[in-house]
Specification:
single chain, GTP-binding, Sey1/RHD3-like_3HB, two-stranded parallel ribbon, membrane, mainly alpha, disordered C terminus
């Protein structure tokens, strides 16, 4: 054995030595047979190190072989005498090698001498019995399979055919065409892969057949099958890679075709079936092109994986499309329910929830109808479709409930808006003017009733059309201050505040938006924030009464009548004084109306006095000028508008620091004649003074 083969399994013939040990123990009794190990081309490693390693390996082989029961504990030394020698390298030390070989030759020449390599010679056969002994040995060899070695022809064929097969396999592994084909397969699908690879394999198998044609047929065919198997194992990864490319390509085409068909509006199930059939045919065509005639490889597993991948992608696309479809209709429901429901809550009324129910039913039915039409191409099963429709209806309901909860959070704002609308506007929706004739208490009661109606609408969700007593309870407790206890409650002995509870009678907790306790708190906040509006209305009414009542109190009138009786009688006895007083009254009345004395004093006493003082003399002069002109039979050359401008300019020149409010008040029109002579009408500062058309035409004609 070679020095570098020490410790190796096959190179050191350990299996053969194991068979020798087993046969020796089974066929022969213990005898000293010498095992001489000759180590070729000894290296620089000292022989003292190599020999123990070799002996240790031999002992391990002996310990591992199966032994007959009779020799179970028999040591190796009973059967074999192990010796080890070493020879130097012939190439490096030729002389020393020849000398060592000569010494080894002498040992064989003298093997039967005492101490020679022939062993203990206990089984020595005499020369006369050599023929019979040889026959017996041959018989044992033929009968024992372990010793029945093949014929020389078979052995040669085995060795040579194996060498040829290994050579051809090595050439195949390094073949440029094969390497190029393998590299191309790793890059992507290759057209004609099976044909090209079959051609390469045919070439090397043909070469093997040509070189091994003269060797034993059985051995030749066996080695050919072995070569073919090894070659197929070499190319099989490339074949699997190619199938992977074909599967990926078919799957990608399936995805692209499916997306195109769906974008054109074709049915989902029909599109999936068509695309799967097309992609599967494409894959099968590629597999047919990749078939190698020397192999019977099955691509069914890759095909099944392709179908599973396509089904998985179709399922994901289906789920995505359905999700998009549902999201679309949910968005539509949110848009069509959100603002209308909010508007219905803003208006408020007894039929608010009825209107919301009608709106919800109409929009939900429309969304379900549209979804049913759009989902027809998916061919959903009845159970799945029904579940999606129910989810859509539930979503529509949730939109309404969510909006109701948001509006319930703004209950105080809605109540204040409703109260202000009813309180400050009459039945014709016109702004209310507090003239003193209105019944503020009744109006306040009406406005608060409207606010309670809004609160009752926002207190609970009423999508199931079940009657409740929320509005009656709120009205009786918050407005009237009492509540009619139901007969069931009275029979059960329940007497107390219905608003001192967290739930409404007959209303499920999940439908409660504002609990009774919260209603009481909201009402307290509402009344506190609206009391100012009522107070302002009362103050405005009282102020209006005071501004339109210029008569002194009744006691003052009686005192004036009693104390001024003598003066009154004096006037009756002197008609000229009476006429003079009447003229003065008319002149004063004209000045009163012309200057709009009440309007001037609305901006304050001091501002009114300043305005009247500044305008009094110009107004008197204007009136006198107009009277003189009429007495002469000539119309006044200055129209009323010019008169107004002069008075205003005179006033501005005298009081340059007046505010804009006082200026607007003082710029009211001034007329020179009283109402009986000129046909001029006078109104409050808020109204526009107008001149009768026919009188004005006479003056300017």
């Amino acid at each position: 054995m070679w020095c570098h083969d020490i410790g190796r399994e096959q190179a050191s013939n350990k299996p053969l030595l194991k068979i020798v040990f087993q046969v020796m123990m089974r066929l022969f009794s213990p005898r000293k047979t010498t095992l001489l190990f000759v180590i070729r081309d000894k290296t620089k490693t000292p022989f003292e190190y190599l020999e123990p390693i070799l002996r240790e390996d031999i002992q391990k082989i002996w310990d591992t072989v199966s032994k007959p029961l009779a020799h179970m504990d028999t040591p190796l030394s009973e059967f074999f005498n192990v010796e080890v020698t070493a020879l130097s390298s012939f190439e490096e030390r030729e002389e020393q090698f020849k000398e060592q070989v000569a010494q080894l030759r002498q040992r064989f020449f003298n093997s039967i001498y005492p101490g020679g390599i022939a062993g203990d010679r206990r089984a020595v056969v005499p020369a006369s019995g050599f023929s019979f002994s040889t026959q017996q040995i041959w018989k044992v060899i033929k009968e024992n399979r372990d010793l029945d070695l093949p014929a020389h022809k078979v052995m040669v064929a085995t060795v040579r055919c194996e060498e040829i097969a290994n050579e051809k396999f090595s050439l195949l592994a390094s073949d440029e065409d094969w390497l190029a084909l393998e590299q191309a397969v790793h890059a992507g699908p290759v057209q004609g892969f099976g044909r090209k690879l079959s051609s390469i394999l045919d070439a090397y198998l043909s070469e093997y057949d040509m070189e091994a044609v003269y060797f034993e047929e059985g051995v030749r065919n066996a080695k050919r099958l072995l070569l073919k198997s090894k070659a197929l194992q070499l190319v099989h990864p490339a074949y699997i890679t190619l199938l992977g490319h074909l599967r990926s390509s078919a799957l990608m085409n399936f995805k692209i075709q499916l997306e195109q068909k769906l974008s054109r509006g074709e049915g989902f199930v029909a599109s999936v079936n068509s695309c799967m059939q097309s992609s599967t045919l494409e894959f099968d065509k590629g597999c047919s092109d990749a078939v190698i005639k020397h192999a019977d490889w099955d691509a069914s597993k890759i095909r099944e994986k392709l179908q599973r991948d396509m089904q998985a992608h179709a399922s994901s696309v289906r789920a995505e499309k359905l999700s998009q479809l549902i999201a679309k209709f949910e968005k539509q429901l949110s848009a069509r329910l959100g603002e209308p429901v909010e508007s219905l809550f803003d208006t408020g009324g007894k039929d608010t929830w009825a209107s919301i129910r009608r709106l919800l039913r109409r929009e939900a039915d429309g969304a379900v109808s549209g979804f049913s039409t759009a989902a027809a191409g998916f061919e959903l099963d009845q159970e799945g479709f029904g579940k999606m429709v129910q989810n859509l209806r539930d979503y529509a309901r949730s939109v309404v409930v969510k909006e109701a909860r948001e509006q319930a959070g703004k209950a105080v704002i809605h109540m204040k808006d409703k109260f202000t609308m009813v309180f400050n506007h009459d039945n014709d929706s016109l702004p209310r003017v507090w003239t003193g004739k209105e019944d503020i208490k009744a109006i306040t009661h009406e406005a608060r009733s409207a606010a309670v109606s809004i609160l009752s609408v926002l207190a609970a969700v009423r999508l199931d059309e079940k009657p409740d007593k929320i509005e009656n309870v709120l009205s009786s407790m918050l407005i009237d201050g009492s509540v009619a206890i139901s007969s069931r409650s009275r029979g059960a002995g329940i007497i107390g505040d219905p608003l001192a509870s967290s739930t409404w009678e007959g209303v499920p907790p999940e439908n409660t938006l504002i609990s009774p306790v919260q209603c009481k708190s909201i009402w307290r906040t509402f009344t506190a924030e609206t009391e100012y509006v009522v107070t302002q209305a009362i103050s405005a009414r009282e102020a209006y009464k005071r501004s339109n009542n210029w008569l002194p109190p009744a006691w003052a009138i009686m005192a004036m009548a009693v104390l001024g009786f003598n003066e009154f009688m004096f006037l009756l006895r002197n008609p000229l004084y009476m006429l003079a007083l009447f003229v003065i009254y008319l002149f004063g009345r004209a000045i009163w109306e012309q200057m709009d004395i009440p309007g001037e004093f609305r901006n304050g006493t001091m501002a009114g006095l300043i305005s009247v003082a500044s305008r009094f003399f110009p107004t008197v002069m204007i009136l006198l000028r107009q009277l003189a002109a009429k007495a002469q039979g000539h119309p006044a050359h200055e129209p009323a508008r010019h008169t107004q401008t002069l008075a205003s300019q005179s006033f501005r020149s005298q009081t340059p620091t007046r505010t804009s409010t006082s200026t607007s008040t003082m710029d009211s029109s001034v007329s020179s004649n009283d109402s009986s002579e000129t046909g001029v009408e006078y109104s409050s500062p808020q109204l526009t003074r107008r001149r009768v058309t026919n009188v004005e035409h006479e003056e300017f004609s």
